[in-house]
Amino acid sequence: MQNGKKDSVAKLLSPILRKLNGKSSDMESSAVISRDGLSVAAELEGGVDPDRLGAMCAALLGLADTTAKELERGDLEQVLLLGGSGVLVLVHIGSSHVLAVAAKTGINLGMVLLEAKKTAQLIKTML
């Protein structure tokens, strides 16, 4: 994506990501990432590097896709990573992008999944 176009897409998506983060005080960060790991737009807390997050999410998604195919689970829809300090949800936005959402431990997981899916559907219409 060319720099000017990337900047305009980021300006378009950033308010949507901020709104998603505002759904709960336990929602920490969100980002739209291309399948090859490039950060398209991000609203991140705690000094997280968007390019580093993008690369890690792309690697995680690639491995999850391969695993789903190998185990004949169908097309991958989302990845859920549960850690001691929080959760990370990756949701497909069409075939070329993914929405990453990070939240604190104790958040209502159903709400995170629902809001991530709704946001991914909205963003899909914009990309």
TrEMBL record:
InterPro entries xrefs: Mycobact_SerProt_Inhib_Rv3364c, Roadblock/LAMTOR2_dom
Residue ranges annotated for the Roadblock/LAMTOR2 domain, each copy included: 13-103
Pfam families reported for this sequence: Robl_LC7
SMART domains: Robl_LC7 (SM00960)
PANTHER family in the cross-refs: SERINE PROTEASE INHIBITOR RV3364C
Listed name of the protein: Roadblock/LAMTOR2 domain-containing protein
